[in-house]
């Protein structure tokens, strides 16, 4: 009756040539009992994207089947069943795109599927958003974060519990009857064996992952949780790259979110992340640095993190002294690129005065790049994206600088010019 699915992908958007690299399916009967499991890695014929999140190496997929090899078998598992997933629209979007690349339209309809993220909010007001948080509330253990099979098994257990909360037949029985009769095309496929990920492959981990699982859902606008669920996944490993940021912009556009709505969601997210981080009553220097980096990459100030931590601690949090630099520690290396309204020398001198170490070229150990245009295609910007160096705007950098001290004299100050 149900097909529970989860995918691991090379990115957030199938329209940006991102592909499915692992898919798992767990079939359930009407009572939520497991009937069958199936999982395979897939060779996407491209780079694997955020390997720090999904934990899959290129060597793992070299001998794996391509999507076209498993299309027939996968279609046979999904046909006639209601699809279930956690943030299911994400997975369905990728599967529709994969079948579409083969030239087939398949009846995978978001409005005729079940989403455990949405059900959690309906059944348990105040329930958190992530799969980990929902499972923890239900007493379900997940082994192997961001393994498609582990996440699918957990989602199946979660949905089985949710089934018990509804009468039999459930209120969506009419939709299942409709799905059961939808015709599927005759799909291509090969007689290939699935490729299972090696035991070394991991997934997300660390303190930021645990904090993300504590974040509450957002009731308005309706698309908010879908957007923030993707942001959760990106930040679970304590970073957001420039490429991630570009994809989030496109996701927001496809979800119909306005710029002001996204800005408000980012403001909420920075605040909620900081408040959740105070749960143990202590923030380490490393954790604070992570929070500041997230705030800056989402277009907010580190002072917003200060404010959130002060609220969460009822004023007990001690705002750290930041000699010269807020958000990135003193001594952080930076590079400028692009034509700025004020001369480059002025920005260079401000950076030095604030305790930063400006460089002429981007290197793998560069802390961040300041760009007149964050979408720049300059050599420096391309190098920054290659090395996963954060790119921020000049306005973002201005917010990181100490407030200017009032002038003691009306006479113009004597300054030294930078040589070289």
Automatic annotation (TrEMBL):
Keywords carried by this UniProt record: Exonuclease, Hydrolase, Nuclease
GO cellular component: cytosol
Ranges in a coiled coil: none
UniProt GO BP: DNA replication
Pfam families: RNase_T (PF00929)
GO MF: 3'-5' exonuclease activity; DNA binding; DNA-directed DNA polymerase activity
Domain of life: Bacteria
Exonuclease domain ranges (all copies): 1-168
Protein name according to UniProt: DNA polymerase-3 subunit epsilon
Lineage, broadest ranks: Bacteria, Bacillati, Actinomycetota, Actinomycetes, Propionibacteriales
């Amino acid at each position: 009756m149900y097909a529970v699915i989860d995918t691991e992908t090379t990115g957030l958007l199938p329209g940006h040539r991102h592909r499915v690299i692992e898919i798992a399916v767990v079939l359930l009967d009407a009572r939520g009992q497991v009937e069958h499991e199936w999982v395979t890695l897939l060779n996407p014929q491209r780079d694997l994207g955020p390997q720090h999140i999904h934990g899959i190496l290129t060597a793992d997929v070299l001998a794996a089947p391509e999507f076209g090899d498993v299309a027939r078998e996968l279609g046979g598992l999904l046909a006639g069943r209601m699809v279930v997933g956690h943030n299911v629209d994400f997975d369905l979007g990728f599967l529709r795109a994969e079948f579409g690349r083969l030239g087939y339209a398949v009846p995978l309809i978001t409005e005729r599927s079940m989403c455990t993220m949405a059900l959690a909010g309906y059944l348990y007001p105040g329930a958190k958003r992530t799969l980990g948080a929902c499972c923890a509330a239900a007493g379900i253990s997940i082994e192997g974060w961001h393994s498609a099979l582990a996440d699918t098994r957990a989602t199946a257990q979660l949905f089985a519990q949710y089934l018990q909360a509804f009468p039999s037949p459930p209120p969506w029985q009419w939709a299942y009857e409709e799905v059961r009769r939808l015709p599927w095309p005759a799909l291509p496929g090969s007689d290939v064996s699935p490729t299972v990920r090696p035991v070394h492959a991991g997934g997300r981990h660390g303190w930021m992952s645990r904090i993300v699982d504590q974040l509450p859902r957002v009731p308005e606008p309706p698309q908010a949780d879908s957007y923030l669920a993707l942001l959760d996944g990106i930040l679970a490993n304590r970073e957001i790259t420039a490429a991630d940021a570009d994809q989030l912009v496109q996701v927001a556009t496809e979800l119909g979110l306005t710029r002001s709505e996204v800005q408000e969601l980012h403001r909420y997210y920075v605040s909620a992340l900081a408040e959740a981080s105070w749960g143990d009553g202590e923030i380490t220097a490393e954790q604070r640095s992570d929070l500041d980096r997230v705030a800056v990459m989402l277009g907010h100030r580190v002072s917003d993190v200060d404010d959130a931590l002060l609220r969460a601690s009822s004023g007990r949090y001690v705002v750290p002294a930041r000699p010269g630099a807020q958000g990135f520690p003193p001594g952080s290396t930076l590079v400028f690129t692009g034509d700025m309204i004020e001369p480059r020398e002025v920005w260079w001198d401000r950076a030095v005065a604030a305790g930063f170490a400006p460089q002429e070229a981007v290197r793998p150990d560069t802390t961040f790049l300041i760009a007149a245009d964050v979408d720049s295609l300059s050599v420096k910007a391309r190098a920054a994206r290659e090395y996963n160096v954060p790119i921020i705007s000049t306005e973002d950098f201005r917010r990181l600088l100490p407030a200017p001290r009032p002038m003691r004299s009306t006479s113009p100050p004597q300054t030294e010019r930078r040589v070289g």
